[in-house]
Predict the structure.
Amino acid sequence: MIKPSMPKSWRVDTKPHKFCPGCGHGLVLKALGQAIDELDIQDRVVFGCDIGCSLLAWDFFNVDTVQTHHGRTNPVMTGIKRANPDLICIGYMGDGGGYAIGSQHLVNAATRNEKITVILVNNAQYGMTGGQMAPTTLPGMKTETTPYGRDVDSTGYPCQGPEMVAAITREGAYVARATVVKPVPLKNYIKKAIQNQMEGNGFSFVECLSACPTNWRTNNVETINFVENEMTKYYHVGEIKVPPPKEPLKVKTWTKIPAMEVQKNG
Amino acid sequence: MANAIKIVMAGEGGQGVQSVAEIIAEAANEEGKECLYIPNFGVEQRGGVSVAYVQISDEAIGAPKFNTGDIVVALSDRALYRTKQYVGPQTIFVYDTSINVPKEDLPANAARILGIPAVEISKNELHPRVFNIIIMGAVVGATSVISREDAKRAIEHKLGAKFEKQPKLRDQNFSAIDRGIELVTKAG
Amino acid sequence: MSEKPIKGEKRVFLTGNEVVAWAAVAAEADIMFGYPITPQNEIMHYWTRMAPRFNKRFLQTEDEISAGFTTNGGVLAGLKAFTATAGPGNTLMQEPISMAEMMRLPVVTIVQQRGGPSSATVIYSQQEVTLTTHGGNGEGMRVVYSTASHQELYDYTIKAFNTAWKYRFPTFVLGDGYQAKMREPLTIYDPEERGIEVVPSYKFIGGAGKPGVDRPPVQLRNIYNMEEELLEVLEEQFAEFGKISPDVAECEYFGCEDAEIVVTAHGVVARGAKSAVKELREHGLKVGYFRPITLRPLAVKELRDIFSKAKKVLVAESANGQLDQLLKYAAYGLTTEMVSLFKPGVGINSEDIYDKVKTMLEN
């Protein structure tokens, strides 16, 4: 039997993982594992997972890991990074942890340009607690606490997390939004966000659009369709802020400057 | 608890009671005595009545505050009403005569009540800025809690850098101490 | 190596907040995380002033929740990290402390109690006893030292770091606004010159070697899947806490052998109690003095021994019975009458205690 290939940094004895079938976390964590492998940083990474479904990743990797409290992963990662800047601190959280209960920590870690990497999984609702409205729930979307659909007049519009982070960070920050339906850019953005920390440029943030078929009550076609076509109406995928190049870009040129004779002054 | 000399000083913010309390406590500390100084503090950064509590003793000092002072100094009308509670039958009550309060509002139960014209003297004879040092002299004179020399040494320690630049200040401060001591000894 | 902060012994005249900063330096603390709240602010002020001289670090966070969690992070990375707070800040601090309890992180927290509930006053109280000893959604697996003088503030801040790193329980120094702001003399010293071992820190995460290859990964969690898993963790903690309690618990007492009334107080109130009892004894009255120095764990053996011999115990505290509750729990089964002198959020002076005991003796 052919087994799917796993990143080397995954902890094999804890697989299969604990996420629901069809959950997007596995895809994000696979991309993260690949990025860790490619950068060969398994011995320097400290992985911090929030409470929410992200807590299930506490034994996911063969890297030192701290499970924190709901919303408090950013301060814990900040404390570790400040105490030992040689470590590469990767915080992992959901939209509730990052944008609701821990929003003050996200805002302040971003404005201080903490040299940490934050990976935030956006599945448009609270998964672990059973599918309540999150800051990221789409207008009209039904959840356990918006059974008739999210009414933007009373509950506001979805939180534009990466756009906010991009607005409040200084130059040097890296901000992107990826999606689990496009695994290659997902991995590339995560890798760049880690490299940006390693280069000491600034705060690095990747929001990953993800799926929760359990609480969405969707089949696999509907699930992919929702992420790909519905979520992207509000959440634009791509790099939102990249650090400026350290040196001017070198451009290949074919222009030839004609030789000129220099007149000698008589 | 009986052996400590207990001082309460109160005035308007800016009258300098806290710095005087601190200088007295520091002088006592330099003499090797046990001493404790605590300011009152609230939510206001500036303004309001400022109260300082000082205790000096040869033995370990008990609670940071106390119910009855050996000497209670009030430098404004608000300070007077605030500090009356600390006056008992053994208390020497000192107030500045510029305070505008009816005579019957002065504490009735004090051992001695000393009205001193510190504001007037500082304005007319010395300099308004040494007003609080006259008060310090009065406390030193009334309690003998530290010696005149130690008081001067403590002032030198605290303000020495300023004195170097303006030697006149030293004379003003030292005269203020002397005048303060004189005021209470004369009044007594 | 930065310069040794304190050489020899030195008599100084400082505010309590300044004392804490010096003690943290003497205890070889590395990093402080904090958020401004009166009356602890000057701990941060002095720490940040000393920081460059002694190669220390500081981060001002967005709130006390963050200050507590960054402190947890600092400890995880292997530094002696600490924070300081008060009142509503202490309320917020209980969340990170509960994580530290679950993971047995040696975080040190200085609390300068102010009035409560809510924002109350910025001045003084002893109303954070319950919160500091049993806060959070846990079982109070922490050590709490309640200091009464600047000398103790210095001694026990150093001790708090040592206790935390020796036993791996979160440790508190419980002071108050009076201690924070008052000035009195004390002697500061280099603990090692006095033969006090400075317990070294160590890394919880980020140690040498490739996880999964050279060593297993360190994976610390605070949430468990099954009730039984949690119980197992907790029972181990209770056993460990019970085992260290006799070594950690401290109290002081005098005059209790013949005492009809034992005056009991903690922290700054104990100063007034001590001088009142001394004076009462000088007048030939049979009054004793008992003061728990650790509020968690309590010196239960001494307490029960002393309380059982007294006719009455007077409990004096600047709270409405928070110490009293701890004492009564420890004294369960004794029939000694317990009388209270509670002044929540207000200082208790020697005279108050003296007068109260006199009234008790007359009745």
Remarks:
- The two ends of chain A are 88 Å apart (CA to CA).
- The longest strand of chain A covers residues 88-94.
- Chain A has a mean pLDDT of 95.
- Chain A has one domain: 12-241.
